[in-house]
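Researcher: Go.
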Amino acid sequence: MKKNIFISFLIPLFLLSCTQTNPNTATSESEKKALVVATSTIIADLAEEIGGDEIELKGILQPGSDPHTYEPVPTDSRFLEEANLILYNGYNLEPGIIKMMNSVGGKARKVPIGEVVKPLQLDKGKGEIVPDPHVWGDVKNAIAMTKAIRDELVKLSPEDKDKFTENANKLTNELQKLDSWIIQEIQTIPPEKRKLVTTHDAFQYYGRAYNIAIAGTLIGISTEEQPSAQTVKNLVDAIKKIGVPAIFAETTINPALITTVAEEAGVKLAPRQLFSDSIGAKGSQGDTYMKMMEANTQTIVEALGGKYTKYKN
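Model: Structure:
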């Protein structure tokens, strides 16, 4: 009889334990972070600085990838569908990703972060005027992008507003110091040598912000363009005429053609390539936006005869 009473007592306890929610599971569900997808490596880097541990961040493009020519893969579609927020550059920097982003389903708000900046307008030829997407070349524009990312993250996760604001303020202060440093560094280049010749037209914002002329490029704003023999000859002739001491290759573009241009023009190719459309691989000199801008400035200053002074943040 006592045994039956004991069993009767245990059965309700067992059933009760089966119906209770695992406290660890409940906690993990309530603390699930919002998924933020960034297209370019530059926007991903800024978003990581601002979002910190409060968001789950996925970058579509890997360091060194060319956003102009990138062809999305099926896993990109999955991330875009699952995202709570998509941050992309805009101004058609990443046409393949934009096309996929607009075709997939999902609940994400899609925000063209680069388009908070009023663009420079470039002539692609035959009267076609397009916005220049390489807005991050001016660090002041990166500050505007930082504020835009902060605001979008606050909308996504209002409870983390203080942390996003703190991180964004810290990043903004660092960017302001970097901007001032670049201005000082470029001024050390002799005025007659303050001219930039690169593989593609990605440095107009940098040139305008830091008072260095864009003297020539092998191709236009998109790396999809293929330069003709006449284009190469014209650039060689222009380089000889303006007398720059060096021209520059870029990390996301095969350097073969610009190397040929340097040889035919009788000028040196800068020993280090410029980071144009992407930050560098982890552990490289330009593996964050700030380090990328510092590395580019060092490369330009040293190759054009300026006096480089290491940036101190």
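Model: Residues 161-186 form the longest helix (26 residues).
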